[in-house]
Structure formats: structure tokens, C-alpha cells
Amino acid sequence: MKTILVTGGLGYIGSHTVVELINAGYTSVIVDNLSNSSIKVLDRIEQITGIRPIFYQCDIQDKQALTDILYKHQIDGVIHFAALKAVGESVQNPLEYYQNNVSGSIELFRQLKNHNIKTIVFSSSATVYGDPHKVPIKEDFPLKPTNPYGWSKLMIEQVLRDLYTSDNQFKVGILRYFNPIGAHSSGLIGEDPQGIPNNLMPYIAQVAVGRREYLSVFGNDYATHDGTGIRDYIHVVDLALGHVRTLEYLSNASRDNLLTVNLGTGRGYSVLDVVQAFEKASGKKIDYKFMPRRSGDIAACYADTNLAQQLLGWRARFGIEEMCRDTWNWQTKNSNGYTN
Ligand code: NAD
Ligand code: UDP
Q1: pTM surpassing 0.90?
Q2: Burial class (CB in 10 A: 0-12, 13-18, 19+), 194
């Protein structure tokens, strides 16, 4: 059995990944500073899997605490989720984003190197492509983020590429996520944004449950089939399974072990398509109003998924119906998220 250090493991994607790691027979050691997550997630993971992961409330920038953890546990690999992730906030507070995401990652990688831990899977994002010249987006498209959050992801990618060049004993999986939504089918874990949600799906779910009056649809004049923005939504459990597959891929020593892949479904849905699918799944009417475009938004973004299929043998299984169904199940069972 292998032991995986999961930074940010109590967050939205991290918690679902820990569940799938446990299901696949791995032991998880979670490091999270709880800046954007609840300790209750630990109980929920235990309820789902019957196993309580090892947990440390610790910041990845805390050198001494990390060293102690790495001495205490025989770690075989790391999945690095810990980061700040709000695009607008990163524009307001770029230094905080570069400090937490970039400096934090460098500190983490330094500790991993010192402890001879050489398997690293990193949460990157489709935001590194900026406004793509065409869709679907392939991994070799130009990289040109448009905000500090996106730059922080691209900088960490580059650090990892250089680390691999310096020592090709490293095994590095860079995963560029498209738009994760949905929740575990138990309804015990899901996305719990603080304050007013920035992202489409949690906002729709809060309108459906009566916490918000209506959805503001940002722009109806894009060159898309209904004028609203198109994204590649992926079920968070599919995404979690993509991490388990990446660890399996990297454990095969005979391969080229610097991997950069898109994790998406390859299908794009517009804002109004998602509203319609959510209405169907929930039986609730989602009121919406058209508003001007949101600054920095692009018309369409969806993945070319061929590389993930070829290299990892992975593809997303769940469709938009299941994504809406599971979001609704989570939202109705936890109308205020993890807060009672
Ligand atoms: P999240 O905020 O739910 O999870 C991140 C977790 O990291 C939180 O639990 C937070 O408390 C923790 N954390 C942050 N900084 C930390 C630090 N310095 N030390 C220790 N813990 C720290 O976010 P998520 O949606 O689960 O995203 C996980 C990763 O995936 C992030 O790196 C994010 O940038 C990336 N990503 C997310 C999306 C998305 O739409 N959710 C898309 C692409 C990429
Ligand atoms: N969107 C919207 N109203 C909202 C939030 C998002 O119309 O309250 C739109 C947004 O303009 C984009 C799509 O929904 O076209 C997905 O936005 P999200 O913020 O979830 O993801 P991202 O823009 O980061 O891909």
C-alpha cells in the first residue's frame, strides 16, 4: 500500500480525491491550513470510506512542520492541491497569490527533494491557456494567462519542468483541469464556497435552494449557439479518478515521467444549457437575468481530451445530468454547506 501526501486535501477537489485514493487502496496524509475548508470534511470522508485519513493542520510554507511530517511518514508521492484560487481576488492581491501559491509550492518542493520524494502530481488549470485561438484546446497550445492566479499556476508548472530537467528521477504529472462541478453521490462532500459564489454551478445551486434570488448571466452576445459562454464542465469524481490514474501512470518507471494533460470531458455547454440541465435535475425553476459580460471572460473553452485517453487510459464518465443531479443532492442535504 502506498502513502500519498495530499496538500489542500480538505478542499473541494482534494476531499473527493482522498476518497478515491482510499477506494484504490492508498493511505492519505492530508496537509491543509483550513484557509478555505472545514475540518468537518474529515468526518465526512470517514463516513464515506470507513477510514479516517491522517490530517495535519499546517501551512505548506511552514518549513519545520512540513519537515516533521515528512520524517514521521514514509511518503511515496504527493498530490499538490493547496492554493488560493479566486481569479478576481488574485487581481486585487497579487502578492498574496504569488506568495501562497508560488513560494508555498517552492518550499514544498524543496522539502520533498530533501526527503527524496520524487513523485509529484500538480493541480494546474485551463486558465494557463488564456483566450485560446481555437477550441478544443490541446496541451501544446500557447500559454498566456490573463490574471495573477493563472500566472501562479503557469509559474509552478515551469518550476516543475525545470526540476524534472535537473533530475529526471522526478516523476511529474501536471494536470490542467477544466471546470470541476458536482459532488460525491453520497451528498456528504461537495463544493462549499465562502460568501457569494464566483462560479456558475454553486451560484445556480444556491438560486435553486432559495439562498439567492436569480442568476446573473454574464453576457448573451458571445459568438456561441445561444450567445452565452461555453465551458467544459467535468464531474469532480471523474477529476479525482484522473489523479489516481496519474499516480498509476507515474509508478511505471519505464515511461517518460513528465506528463502534462488536460482533464476535461471534451464537451462544451453554454450557461443556458447548464441552467436548463439543472432545472431538469432539480425540478426547480432557475430565474436569471442577462447582464453585461464579466471582465476577463472568454467565449468558449473546452478540452481536447485525446492525450489523457492515450497516455492515462482515462476519460470522464459522467455527463452534465449526473453533474447537476449530484450538485443538487449535495446542496439540498447541506443548504449552508458545512456550516450547520
Ligand atoms: P479549495 O479552496 O476547495 O481547496 C484548496 C485547499 O488548499 C483548501 O482546503 C485550503 O484550505 C488549502 N490551502 C490553501 N493554501 C494553503 C497553504 N498555504 N497551506 C495549506 N493548505 C492550503 O480549491 P479546489 O477547488 O479544491 O482546488 C484545488 C486545486 O485545484 C487548487 O490548486 C486550484 O487552483 C486548482 N484548480 C481548481 C479549479 C476549480 O475550478 N475548482 C480549476 C482548476 C484548478
Ligand atoms: N457565469 C455567469 N454567472 C455567474 C457565474 C458565471 O453567467 O454568476 C458564466 C461565466 O461568464 C462563464 C461560465 O458561467 O461563461 C463559467 O463561469 P465560472 O466562473 O464558473 O468558470 P470560469 O469562467 O472560470 O471558466
Answers
A1: yes
A2: exposed
**Does 143 map to a domain?**
yes
- On whether residue 248 sits in a domain, the answer given is yes
pLDDT digits (tens, 9 = 90+) for 33-81: 999 999 999 999 999 999 999 999 999 999 999 999 999 999 999 999 9
Backbone φ and ψ of 175, nearest 5°: -110, 120
Residue-number span of the structural domain to which 245 is assigned: 3-181+233-264
Query: For residue 120, which of 246, 233, 211, 22 has the smallest C-alpha distance?
Result: 246
Residues with CB under 6 A from ligand 1: 7-8, 10-14, 31-37, 59-61, 81-85, 100, 104, 123, 125, 177, 179-180
* List of E strands, 155-257: 171-177, 179-181, 215-218, 230-231, 233-235
Minimum-distance ligand 1 atom for the alpha carbon of 32: 21
Lookup: cell for 55: 490530517
Residue 259 lies in a domain: yes
Q: How many domains does the chain have?
A: 1
Let me know if residue 209 belongs to a domain: no
